[in-house]
Specification:
Structural class: alpha/beta
CATH topology of the largest domain: Aspartate Aminotransferase, domain 2
Largest sheet: 7 strands, mixed
CATH superfamily of the largest domain: Type I PLP-dependent aspartate aminotransferase-like (Major domain)
Order of helices and strands: HHHHEHHEHHEHEHEHEHEEHHHEEHEEEH
Strand order of the largest sheet: 2-8-7-6-5-3-4
Number of strands: 13
Number of helices: 17
Distance between the termini: 54 Å
Oligomer: single chain
Bound molecules: pyridoxal-5'-phosphate
Number of domains: 2
Length: 406
């Protein structure tokens, strides 16, 4: 009998009463059936699952939580606690792990950017908190950003009402600092592109007493980055929780100076009448984030890297068995710093476009997601589950071989 039917049956049939009457506990009737038919909502709704050989993309739900994190979420869900006390305790732990004075769990790195900026603008002034994003009465409402760092993520900052002031050189930056300057923002993934490097950026901030913030959302590994930018002297550091750290996908971390974290929290839930009220993080996510970070920091990173290299080798070997196919292994210098593969092919020997190959991989069984460009496909291996490297290798080889001209 299906569980649905059993429940229906129990609710209409006199058996429930009869069972109690005969001394047979009702639980003993329902429990085995319930355990046997654990609800699988993904299946029930017909959702496509896939092997993630693309990377930690929000649209693909980014990363999978480890069982320790899911266990934490499950056990935390059974209790009421005060959310501020959860943030206090977890914040202390995260701060200690990452060499910061203080920390909080936010609704993703984006939310860390908004709340950190808001805190810098308002400090502990509740009147100011209530005014954001209207900064017309604020003395300081500008954020200095290097031109090469001024990309889409800046929208997290402009949410608070600030105006971005673009600069290119250190001299320009010093000249741009006025009584209106609230903050200076550094996008770590654009670090190699900008003229002003971390140390000089922080030094200028300190010299002029302007707080500095760094967005290093996707920039672990290496794990040391979790404390490197606090050690360097950035006043606020923003990280994604649900990328390589494999925390809850909707969580992130804001860490840094104690007074600025306190001010950011004034702009965040559970407080209302502020810009951050919609960026709620529940106790399960806050505690899950803490456990994910703890696990991530204590991972054997060298062994993990070796495992990634082994996976890369499996896929490269299979793909390049097809005549005309070549594979380049590369490691992005900043952000998603893990071994990745670019597979390309001689269009005269293998008649398929990257787009068509991506579609075939997606539509195949098992479904595989990769990234693609004009001249080939890109594969990462850090989001694969054990054994999936072989499946990806097989599917890529099959599709390329199918398109090969014999
Ligand atoms: C992913 C990302 C964000 C947003 O992070 P979420 O954790 O998804 O909110 C912000 N900045 C950069 C550079 C990112 O890569």
């Amino acid at each position: 009998m299906k569980r649905r039917d059993l429940i229906k049956y129990l609710s209409v049939a006199p058996i429930a009463g009869a069972a109690v009457g005969t001394g047979v506990p009702l639980q003993s009737l329902a429990a085995p059936a319930a355990a046997a038919a654990k609800r699988d909502v993904i299946k029930e709704l017909g959702l496509r699952t896939f092997i993630n050989a693309a990377g930690t993309y929000t649209t693909m739900t980014a990363s999978l939580m480890h069982h320790e994190v899911v266990d934490t979420i499950e056990s935390a869900s059974k209790h009421f606690v005060m959310i501020n006390e959860v943030q206090d305790k977890v914040g202390e732990k995260i701060a200690a792990m990452c060499h910061a004075e203080s920390a909080m769990v936010t609704a993703g790195c984006w939310s860390a950017l908004v709340l950190g900026t808001a805190g810098i603008l308002t400090r502990m002034d509740r009147k100011k908190v209530s005014l954001l994003p209207d900064l017309s009465t604020f003395d300081r409402s500008e954020v200095i950003v290097q031109k090469t760092h001024n990309v889409g993520y800046v929208h997290a900052l402009t949410n608070t009402g600030i105006r971005v002031v673009e600069v290119e050189t250190a001299e320009e930056m010093e000249r741009a600092i006025t009584g209106k300057t609230a903050m200076m923002w550094f996008l770590n993934s654009s670090g190699p592109m900008g003229k002003i490097k971390h140390e000089e950026f922080v030094a200028i901030g300190k010299k002029h007493n302007i707080p500095t913030m760094i967005d290093m959302a996707a920039d672990v590994p290496p794990v040391e980055n979790l404390w490197k930018y606090n050690d360097l002297g950035f006043d606020l550091v923003c990280v994604s929780g649900g990328k390589a750290i494999c925390g809850p996908q909707s969580a992130g971390i804001l860490m840094g100076k104690k007074d600025l974290i306190a001010a950011a929290r004034l702009n965040a839930p559970p407080n209302g009448g502020n810009i951050g009220r919609g960026m709620k993080v529940n106790k399960e996510e806050i505690l899950g984030m803490y456990v994910a970070l703890d696990k991530y920091i204590n991972t054997d990173h060298a062994a993990e890297w070796k495992m990634w290299e082994d996976r890369v080798a499996v896929i490269v070997n299979a793909a390049t068995k097809v005549d005309g196919v070549s594979a380049d292994v590369f490691v992005p210098p900043v952000a998603n710093h893990t071994p990745a593969i670019k597979i390309s092919w001689d269009q005269n020997k293998v008649k398929i476009t990257p787009r068509q190959l991506m579609k075939n991989l997606r539509d195949g069984s098992p479904s595989v997601e990769v990234m693609g460009g004009q001249t080939g496909i890109n594969i990462t291996v850090f989001m694969l589950k054990n054994g999936e490297d072989k499946l990806v290798a097989k599917r890529v080889q099959q599709e390329l071989a199918k398109a090969a001209i014999s």
